[in-house]
């Protein structure tokens, strides 16, 4: 085996190990298990995971809050799987550990889709995500947090 082939094989092994590590440390939190205020558990739309999804985001005080345990301190990509029939260019707001993090841009869809909510440096321990009404109804299914240190990731 040539030196170049060994280097390529070593690089491929490193990428595979990193991918497995990320998959093992990925956190998925079902929206419906959180604290619901002004919103409700729904099951009418097909394709959700877990026991259902959350619907009823239509008022300024509506929110859902989920807690989760981070076992590995790292920079995490935050994604939200959701459904909305509202027109494009809408958003909801996201808080992390009681601090406003920013807005999550929503795209209209007839199925559950993934929104990139950004990245955040989490420490080990218990944390919270709170989704707040923005300017359109959103029906979140779950949040997925994936460690991104040492990988290529989208900073938007």
Describe the structure in your own words:
With 156 residues, the chain is mainly beta. The protein has one domain: Jelly Rolls. It is built from one helix and eleven strands.
Keywords, please?
156 residues; mainly beta; 4-stranded antiparallel beta sheet; globular
Task: Please describe the topology of this protein.
Layout: H1 3-25, E1 27-30, E2 35-37, E3 40-42, E4 53-55, E5 63-70, E6 74-83, E7 90-96, E8 99-106, E9 113-122, E10 125-132, E11 139-147
Antiparallel strand pairs: 1-11, 2-5, 3-4, 5-10, 6-9, 6-11, 7-8, 7-10
Major β-sheet strand ordering: 2-5-10-7-8
Alpha-carbon distance between the two ends = 41 Å
Q: Which CATH architecture? A: Sandwich
Low-pLDDT residue spans: 4-22
**Helix-strand string:** HEEEEEEEEEEE
Report the portion of residues in β strands: over 45%
- Discrete helix count: 1
Could you state the CATH homologous superfamily?
Answer: Galactose-binding domain-like
In short:
The chain is mainly beta and 156 residues long. The protein is built from one helix and eleven strands, in the order αβββββββββββ.
């Amino acid at each position: 085996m040539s030196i170049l082939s060994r280097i390529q094989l070593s690089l491929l092994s490193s990428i595979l190990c990193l991918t497995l590590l990320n998959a093992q440390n990925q956190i998925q939190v079902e929206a419906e298990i959180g604290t619901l205020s002004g919103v409700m558990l729904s099951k009418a739309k097909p394709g959700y995971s877990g026991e259902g999804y959350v619907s009823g985001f239509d008022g300024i005080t509506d929110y859902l809050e989920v807690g989760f345990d981070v076992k590995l301190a790292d920079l995490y990509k935050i994604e939200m799987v959701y459904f909305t029939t509202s027109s494009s260019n809408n958003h909801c707001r996201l808080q992390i550990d009681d601090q406003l993090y920013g807005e999550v841009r929503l795209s209209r869809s007839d199925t559950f889709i993934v929104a990139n909510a950004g990245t955040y440096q989490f420490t080990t321990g218990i944390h919270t995500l709170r989704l707040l009404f923005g300017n359109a109804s959103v029906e979140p299914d779950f949040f997925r947090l994936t460690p991104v240190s040492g990988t290529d990731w989208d900073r938007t």
